[in-house]
Amino acid sequence: MITITHATKNIRIKTIDENMFSGSYFNRCMDNASCQDCCCSYGCPVDIAEAARILSYKEELERRLGIPSFDWFEHDIEQRAEFPSGIILKTRVKDNKCVFHDNKERGCHLHRLALEQGFDPHLLKPMICFLFPITWDGTYLHVSEFLDELPCKGTGMPIFEAQGNELLTYMGEEFYKEMTTIKEQVLLCKKEPDTGSNITR
After folding, report:
1. Separation of first and last alpha carbons in the chain
2. Which position has the higher pLDDT, 149 or 171?
3. How large is the average pLDDT for residues 104-129?
4. What are phi and psi of 110, to 5 degrees?
5. Of the candidates 91, 88, 110, which has an alpha carbon nearest to the alpha carbon of residue 99?
6. Measured CA distances, 21 to 4, 39, 49, 127, 131 (Å)
7. Where are the alpha helices (DSSP H) in the chain?
8. Which of 83, 101, 133, 167 qualifies as a cystine partner to 147, CB 3.0-4.6 A?
9. Is the preceding peptide bond at 158 cis, omega within 30 degrees of 0?
10. pLDDT tens-digit profile of 93-105?
11. How many CB atoms lie within 10 A of CB 86?
12. If you average pLDDT over every residue of the chain, what do you get?
């Protein structure tokens, strides 16, 4: 766990997991036929503001999903201070996948709807989905333990590099620059294990 000083744009992060720099996964999800979107096997926490944006496309999504909007989210609201609004809903699971998963063609209905209508999927698909396998608990940004269950683990790019654009989008430029500096220090220490060097932040 490494302390970080720059503030983020969306969630308040104080410490990060150095495994983001050494761990890897196959990030071109739609090119990997073996996993069948395993990462969509559970419901995910969605900030209440994100849920409101999703619900603004209620009619179109109900047609695509064949599921009424009433059944998209668990009905219990949770207080989660680390999310932008401090309140979350969780997406429901249908047929062993997140309710927004496209069980016929793979991928996410939210992502596909945005592309088809010509706007950035970041404006509709939840932040936690874009950042995966990076996630956060409180103020700690780390690699999700769920990655251990997936066949893509250890088969592609370093996690930090694969998710660099998403970290830049959601965390901000200064935070991303600091993470880049930390990455260089972490990798240097791994190359020189006998020097006694430590990262002190």
Report:
1. 10
2. 171
3. 93
4. -65, -45
5. 91
6. 15, 20, 31, 20, 15
7. 19-22, 48-55, 58-65, 109-117, 127-131, 159-162, 164-171, 173-191
8. 133
9. no
10. 998 999 999 988 8
11. 12
12. 87
Q: Is the pLDDT of residue 49 over 60?
A: yes
Q: What is the pLDDT of residues 18-34, one digit of tens each?
A: 999 988 887 777 666 67
- What does the pLDDT read at residue 156? 78
pLDDT at 32: 67
Cβ proximity of 152 and 32 under 8 Å: yes
Given a contact cutoff of 8 angstroms between Cβ atoms, the answer to whether 25 and 155 are in contact is yes
Structure tokens at 30: 């739609």
> Tell me: the pLDDT tens digits for 174-195?
999 999 999 888 877 776 655 4
Host H or E run for residue 158? strand 157-158
The tokens of 3 are what?
Answer: 């302390």
Estimate to the nearest angstrom the gap between the alpha carbon of 63 and the chain centroid.
Answer: 26
**Dist CA 132 CA 142 (whole Å):** 10
Q: Which two tokens stand for residue 79?
A: 């207080």
Which residue's structure tokens are 């269950």? Answer: 149
Per residue, the 3-state secondary structure of 81-121, as one string, reads: CCCCCCEEEEECEECCEECCECCCCCCEHHHHHHHHHCCCH
Dist CA 27 CA 15 (whole Å): 24
| pLDDT value, residue 130 | 94
